[in-house]
Amino acid sequence: MTAQRIDGKHISEVIRQEVSEQTRKLKEKGIVPGLAVVLVGEDPASKVYVGSKEKACQQMGFYSEVHRLPENTTEEQLLDLIDRLNKQGSIHGILVQLPLPAHIQEKAVIDAISVDKDVDGFHPVSTGNLVIGDDSLLPCTPAGCIELIKRTGTEISGKHAVVIGRSNIVGKPVAMLLLRENATVTICHSRTANMKELTKQADILVVAIGKANAIDSSYVKPGAVVIDVGINRLDTGKLAGDVHFDSVQEIAGHITPVPGGVGPMTITMLMQNTLIAAKRINGIKE
Ligand SMILES: Nc1nc(=O)c2c([nH]1)NC[C@@H]1CN(c3ccc(C(=O)N[C@@H](CCC(=O)O)C(=O)O)cc3)C=[N+]21
């Protein structure tokens, strides 16, 4: 059996068209969704991602601002900028590209972003609302994973979902979202004993560990939906996921490629969050 490839690029395009259309309608009410992206320093990967976000905003018809700050920017200067963006009426979403330089405390910066404009979904209040099940802006990569699973036609409710990885930006929130969809959820991590025994029970397997090609078919239940969140740049310059695609494709039911899987969905969910934030800030019901 060969798994079906989940085309994140195509699914992204479909959702982006929906977002564009809703943006067009919102503009008739005089509201233009606005996203501010803040980049500190010269990390080459971050520059590429910020460029993609800027392009996506143009494609959606959003207003966008990119603030490119030098490496030696102080935490105070960055907090000042966030304070201004929090108050700026034309901005509905604020994203500070991570990782930040070591001399800036990530937590202080994330905490400073207005919850209403937290389109990354990283603020502790957004996280808390996610856990409680209250309305919040959902973290983009986890929301993208759920969207990809649903669009395979897979019913999540009642399934055993196994997440490998427990980061605050992917592993933990994606586990919470799966739980919210009524999956039975297991979280594995670097200290998990007998990991294969658990992953081999997974109807849905989400992999977010940051190690190239670490998960081969010996971890996977036949027919499983496999979502690969990893983006690892190899010495050859090529991108690889955390999942060994060729091996797992032989046994899985559905599998996301890297590139062209979760990555494009992350940016698409950011666009969707910015649209939702613009509506909420202006008191428009969805
Ligand atoms: N505050 C913040 N929010 C983020 O959402 C955030 C961040 N910081 N820091 C870095 C990570 C990473 N990230 C990606 C977005 C798109 C692709 C993407 O589009 N990837 C393409 C390939 C891109 C390429 O060729 O390098 C794909 O997988 O097909 C990947 C990774 C967002 N991040």
TrEMBL record:
It catalyses: (6R)-5,10-methenyltetrahydrofolate + H2O = (6R)-10-formyltetrahydrofolate + H(+); (6R)-5,10-methylene-5,6,7,8-tetrahydrofolate + NADP(+) = (6R)-5,10-methenyltetrahydrofolate + NADPH. PROSITE patterns: THF_DHG_CYH_2. Residues 139-280 form the Tetrahydrofolate dehydrogenase/cyclohydrolase NAD(P)-binding domain. Pfam families: THF_DHG_CYH, THF_DHG_CYH_C. GO terms for molecular function: methenyltetrahydrofolate cyclohydrolase activity; methylenetetrahydrofolate dehydrogenase (NADP+) activity. One of its GO terms (cellular component) is cytosol. Its EC number is 1.5.1.5, 3.5.4.9. Keywords: Amino-acid biosynthesis, Histidine biosynthesis, Hydrolase, Methionine biosynthesis, Multifunctional enzyme, NADP, One-carbon metabolism, Oxidoreductase, Purine biosynthesis. GO terms for biological process: L-histidine biosynthetic process; methionine biosynthetic process; purine nucleotide biosynthetic process; tetrahydrofolate interconversion. SUPFAM superfamilies: Aminoacid dehydrogenase-like, N-terminal domain, NAD(P)-binding Rossmann-fold domains. NADP(+) binds at residues 165-167, 231. CDD domains: NAD_bind_m-THF_DH_Cyclohyd. Residues 6-120 form the Tetrahydrofolate dehydrogenase/cyclohydrolase catalytic domain. Pathway: One-carbon metabolism; tetrahydrofolate interconversion. NCBIfam families: PRK10792.1 (NF008058), PRK14186.1 (NF010783), PRK14188.1 (NF010785). Catalyzes the oxidation of 5,10-methylenetetrahydrofolate to 5,10-methenyltetrahydrofolate and then the hydrolysis of 5,10-methenyltetrahydrofolate to 10-formyltetrahydrofolate. Belongs to the tetrahydrofolate dehydrogenase/cyclohydrolase family. Homodimer. This is Bifunctional protein FolD. It comes from Paenibacillus roseus.
